[in-house]
Design goal:
Layout (H helix, E strand, L loop, with lengths): L1 E4 L8 H11 L6 E4 L12 H13 L3 E5 L7 H13 L3 E4 L2 H9 L4 E3 L8 H8 L3 E5 L6 H10 L9 E14 L4 H5 L18 E4 L5 E6 L2 E9 L4 H6 L4 E4 L6 H12 L31
Parallel strand pairs: 1-2, 1-11, 2-3, 3-4, 4-5, 5-6, 6-7, 7-11
Antiparallel strand pairs: 7-10, 8-9, 9-10
């Protein structure tokens, strides 16, 4: 299995992004996803900046993938997407169906992002015929659903596409045309003043019982808890998962990647460090289930 570093979901200052990827170039990760996936108004990183980061990572032996916006709403965003696709050189992670159409129109392979919501084997087969080389399993889909997809896929396991699973990080749960971060500051989306840069790991929300519940990140809603499928590495391997995704966080990402890399070579499962793994077992996502539980 390969280790992948997902795109940064938060809005960080340009210097922080460059420092993060300079460190990532030294980490034992095989694939790195770049790009803005939440809001086109986040412009700290320009096209030239992303190109420089891509060169740095490729020189370090990493495969680089450009991730598209998860919710495309304007013609300007379509034009920006087309420019990335037309210049070539990078594999695309299509997080919106507009990106799927764009990649297919240019005859380019692509990774199907989790926000495409691929819940059945027919959708996977449809995309594979149009150039999909890998798909990212939805965070709410667990081991049972992945096994069902593999069993029902036309042509069997030999034709089943490479599969990527988020194994560490907050779970992306929903996207909206409304900006939750701007609303929290009593601002409109059009007059947000890029306030999400004040929250390098989102805005945490608790329940009335003061328990962690959600995390607001611009137009995105994440889980407050951190998913950890480290104890399930052997299950993931048995189910044919080919790529393990780590979500970037402001600090400690390198240590997380090292932990999973060591886990791949270990005879015993990793011990729990995160907060939840419920979706993997078909339970509420915020719950924790023992890795010894039968699937």
């Amino acid at each position: 299995m390969k280790m992948t570093l997902g795109p940064i979901p938060y809005f960080w200052k340009r210097e922080a992004v460059h420092e993060f990827y300079e460190a990532a170039a030294t980490w034992p990760v095989d694939v790195v996803y770049l790009g803005e996936i939440i809001c086109s108004k986040r412009r700290e990183m320009r096209t030239q900046d992303w190109q420089e980061v891509a060169r740095l990572l490729r020189d370090a032996g990493k495969e680089v993938v450009f991730s598209t916006l998860s919710l495309i709403e304007a013609e300007s965003e379509i034009l920006a997407l087309n420019r990335w696709v037309e210049q070539g050189g990078l594999l695309i992670e299509a997080n919106d169906w507009s990106a799927v159409h764009c990649a297919h129109a240019h005859g380019l392979p692509f990774v199907a992002g989790a926000s495409l919501n691929l819940y059945n084997h027919e959708a996977l087969d449809f995309l594979q015929q149009r150039g999909m080389c890998r798909f990212v399993l939805g965070v709410d889909q667990g081991a049972g659903q992945l096994q069902a997809l593999r069993n029902q896929f036309p042509g069997g396991a030999q034709r089943f596409p490479d599969t990527e699973v988020l194994v560490w990080g907050r779970l992306p749960l929903a996207y909206s045309a409304r900006c939750f971060t701007a609303r929290a500051q009593e601002r409109s989306k059009d007059d947000c003043d890029h306030c999400c840069i004040q929250y390098p790991e989102g805005i945490l929300l608790d329940t009335r019982e003061e328990l962690p519940f959600l995390c607001l990140n611009g137009i995105q809603v994440l889980s407050a808890q951190c998913c950890d499928l480290g104890p399930e590495l052997h299950q993931l391997q048995a189910l044919g998962v080919t790529h393990l995704r780590i979500t970037p966080q402001p600090s400690g990402t390198g240590a997380v990647i090292e932990r999973f890399r060591q886990g791949l070579n270990a005879a015993t499962p990793l011990e729990r460090q995160g907060d939840c793994n419920g979706f993997w077992y078909g339970n509420p996502g915020m719950s924790w289930v023992s890795s010894a539980t039968p699937i």
